[in-house]
Amino acid sequence: MREEILSNQNNALQLERLYRGNKPGFKAAFNALYPELQTNPLAEGWYQRLNFSQGLSDGASAWGTPAERSFVIAASLFAALIAKLPEIFPISEDFFYPRNIGFIVAPVLMAYFAWKNAVSWQTRGLAILLLIGAIVFINWLPQNENSDTLILSCLHLPLWLWSLLGAAYNGGKWRNGANWLEFLRYTGELVVMSGLLVLAGGLTTALTINLFNLIGWDIQRFYFKYVVVCGLACVPMVATFITRVQPTLVSKVSPMIAKLFSPVALVMLVVYLAATLVAGKSPYHDREFLLVFNGLLVGVMALIFFSVAETDHSGGNRAQIILLFLLSAATLLVNSIALSAVLFRISEWGLTPNRAAVLGANVLMLAHLFYVGLRLFAVLSKKAELSTVGASLGLFLPLYSIWSAVVIFVFPLIFGFK
Questions:
Q1: Is residue 58 part of a domain?
Q2: What is the extent of the structural domain holding 205?
Q3: Cβ-contact 352, 414 below 8 angstroms
Q4: Taking the model in full, what pTM does it have?
Q5: 221 burial type by CB count under 10 A (0-12 exposed, 13-18 middle, 19+ buried)
Q6: Which of 13, 56, 103, 394 has the highest count of CB atoms within 10 angstroms of its CB?
Q7: How many domains is the chain built from?
Q8: Distance CA 331, CA 187 (A)
Q9: Any stretches that span the bilayer, and where are they (predicted)?
């Protein structure tokens, strides 16, 4: 968005198109660029337009329109209602929450973006059918705590729902015209804002419970059962609303987090690999260690993608690009070790649902990391623009969605629900 605004700073029509395509993202990027554009009369007009506090003519304010606020309140209450279904109906919590926790959050967020982006009713109908089908399937699976396919389906379902949310965020578009990089930025902002809300809620909870304890009232069980559970269900919707109507609140925090934790992750990864060699640990024979190894891989991969998205947004510098390239190279090494360990275990002890799922994920991540690394190297060699790195992220995200769908809906059938 930053580069597009700079290249079209004198083109009023193109700026209007960029603004209508992504209003919160445009406002955040434009306000960050404004000190460089103050001498431009067109930029001055846009600044006044974006930051002018609207009156009562359209009912808007710094916290959205009345219709938007009403939608958020209704959606939050609906999410809280879904979270309390095990108490309303005779449903086991151990059965309900592992299978349905994603459905507490995803449908209301999808509805919000479908409403904001005026998604066609045909697309909304398809999304509703996909959600209903997923709900029926995941709750139809036999209850077996030792079933690997059930656990894999429950673990991959939030990822698949996240990809459906991305389609809603992009106005119902999946590939052509879909801006997955902006969706990644929104995801990062959502995580940051949700974390702040949970922290504030935790402090409020501790204060409230202790205040009532002072007068002899033990409200802890009641408070956690109703207030905390319902509050947690509402957090993603409220956090999304805040990031949309107040984009500047976290627009500077997310790049700072990316720049701060990228070098920390690189140092930690290198030290961890060295310590692994010294300790004589091997993911080839130690299953638990391989799980930790893959968990580390997923976490660092997520940090790389988030960092690339924020670097592309803020423009970045050469030192930051070099750091991301080194981090991607180190993660590529970790991925290669993990993949070879999975292949070794399959050759020695055969194919299981867990090994098949990890194998597919590792192959996909290896290809993605290699492609991102090539794009970063091209940027360092001045053979490509930084925007190509961001585009490389969006290229693979639909593939992750397809693979997660295979694990959720196909694995239980082909492995006999084992």
A1: no
A2: 64-249
A3: no
A4: 0.79
A5: exposed
A6: 103
A7: 3
A8: 22
A9: 96-115, 121-142, 149-170, 190-212, 224-245, 257-277, 289-309, 321-344, 356-377, 397-417
